[in-house]
Amino acid sequence: LRLGGARRKEAEERSLEWLERLEVGEVRAKRPGEVSGGQGQRVAVARALAARPRVIFADEPTGALDSLNGERVMTLLTEAARDTNAAVVLVTHEARVAAYSDREVVVRDGQAREMAGTV
Fold this sequence. Notes:
By secondary structure, the chain is α+β, with helices and mostly antiparallel strands. The protein has one domain (about 10-115): 3-Layer(aba) Sandwich (Rossmann fold). About 40% of the residues lie in helices and about 15% in strands. It contains four helices and four strands. A two-stranded parallel sheet has the order 1-2. A two-stranded antiparallel sheet has the order 3-4. Strand 3 and strand 4 (about 110-115) form a beta hairpin. Helix 1 (about 10-20) crosses helix 2 (about 35-50) and helix 2 runs parallel beside helix 3. The termini are far apart. The mean pLDDT is about 90.
């Protein structure tokens, strides 16, 4: 955030807001090796969303999460993208995660094809 021009206080506030929304605010002072895989994954999503990027690249954003936290992450990710008019490029093997997308491209045997019925 600081590299993007945000003042220190603003960067801290935005970061803490997303950590709290993803229910991992308690880990903000911990080192990466001191948090679980799921907590680390939610921290990574919080960092990405706090930066307010125009494009969010998410490779298996729910891979290390239980279904409740996976749903929470996907809901917040789609809401944040909509609110900031950002694009999300998402890679997943899970149909329930792909269901959050407006458009779906399936890669099979090295060939990409858009799924019928998607926007």
